[in-house]
Amino acid sequence: MLSAPLFTRARPGSSSGLALRGGDPVRTGDWPPWPVWNPKADTPMLSLLKSGDWYRGDGNQCNEFERAYAELIGARRVIATASGSTALVTSLHTIGVDAGDEVIVSPFTFIATYNVVFNQKALPVFADTDPETFTINPDKIEERITDRTTALLPVHICGLPADMNRILTIGRKHNIPVVEDACQAWLAEYDGRMCGTLGDLGCFSFQNSKHIPSGEGGAIAGSDDALMDRCFAYHNCGRPHGATMRGMGENPVRGWNKRMTEIQAGLLLTQIGRARADADKRLENALYLDARLKEIPGIVPYRLSDGATRSAYHLYPFRFKKEYFDGLPRHKFIAALHAEGIPCGEGYGQQYFDGLIEEAITSRGYRRLFSKERLNRYREELHDLPDNDQLALEAVWFYQNMLLAEKGDMDDIVNAIRKVYENREQLL
Ligand SMILES: Cc1ncc(COP(=O)(O)O)c(C=O)c1O
């Protein structure tokens, strides 16, 4: 795949001090670029642009992409949407999440996961994270269920499958539908099935950083015809769709325009072909990192949840235990790795204290929809996420494009972390 050398390594015998302290970095130069233009896309994309058929009603790109993506992930049906967020909003609305309802979500996630719940004027209720798997802890879900809980919204964050057997069992027991946020989990597998095809509905994102990119884009996967027809109708201004809505008149349901354009779908069709090989490459490199990184004190790679068979590795996360680094703060560890030529980032922080949630629940609308007691208890629940709070302090991740490089590049990652570990006193 990647043939030309992408980088240079420090010369043997060069200064071994930390790059942050003037030594030679472990690595200079670039990591694989993302996204990557497919040269075979020149002709079809230009002719699509020249055709003027940019709206899905006038062309066949969205239809074709829906078929191709359904085949790739083994879904019965797929609906293309404008973005992952619109896929989630469409799914929550169609599954019945209404104003004044509650949805149980994972707190360790991109803010869109719970902003879409606010979009429905519902309350995103956080259940604590399992810090080993980075996903929602199934043991913490039932204590958050109330008579207003209308959906469970687990997130396969970083591409790591949430513990779907447990989550689906809880959903069935309480008769609560499950919508998967698989916006970072294309080709991730749980029990041999693809994430996003396990719950009642599954949502994907094709935003530019994602593994099948098109600037913006999204999809809903599902197998229930009535539900999928209604999702389609909602995302298409409420127009009836499919056999289950036949004969229903012009706009039988409330709807919105959350459609994907033909241009987005055309681009996705030129990107989808590489997804499987990329996923295999990321897996191979991630498994190598798993084995090597756990040898370094204080570095604890993610664990797959019970039943999970494969991550998508949108991010490669691990926990940085500063006590093994003589108390080195995480931000200094990250800065040191950057200086060594290894990009990495902190995971999601305690976003629930950033003021936006407080703003939402003190709004006139929320005070009408929820009792004072419920909102106060909700505030208390935000302070009862001890494992997520700890994870927010310890998480570090590498980016998916790095896992598309070669094994020698993974050695650079390992060598840089080991170098920081061995020279930690220079940073204290
Ligand atoms: C976990 C998660 N959920 C939802 C979204 C929203 O997707 P989009 O940006 O396509 O609207 C994202 C996008 O980054 C995501 O990572």
Q: What are the key terms here?
A:
single chain, 428 residues, alpha+beta, disordered N terminus, binds pyridoxal-5'-phosphate
Shape: globular
Ions, cofactors and other ligands present here are: pyridoxal-5'-phosphate
Radius of gyration: 23 Å
Give the class from helix and strand content and strand pairing: alpha+beta
Distance between the termini: 41 Å
Number of strands: 16
Q: Low-confidence parts lasting 5 or more residues at pLDDT below 50?
A: 1-7
Helix content: 25-40%
Order of helices and strands: EEHHEHEHEEHEEEEEHHHEEEHEHHHHEH
Number of distinct helices: 14
Order of the strands making up the biggest sheet: 3-11-10-7
Largest sheet geometry: 4 strands, mixed
Please, what is the average pLDDT? 96
Strand content: 5-15%
List the helices and strands and how they pair.
Layout: E1 7-9, E2 27-29, H1 42-51, H2 61-73, E3 77-81, H3 84-95, E4 102-105, H4 112-119, E5 123-126, E6 149-153, H5 164-174, E7 179-181, E8 189-190, E9 193-194, E10 201-205, E11 218-222, H6 225-235, H7 262-271, H8 275-293, E12 299-301, E13 308-310, E14 315-320, H9 330-339, E15 345-346, H10 356-361, H11 364-369, H12 372-382, H13 386-394, E16 395-399, H14 407-422
Parallel strand pairs: 4-5, 4-6, 7-10
Antiparallel strand pairs: 1-2, 3-11, 8-9, 8-13, 10-11, 12-14, 14-16, 15-16
This protein binds pyridoxal-5'-phosphate.
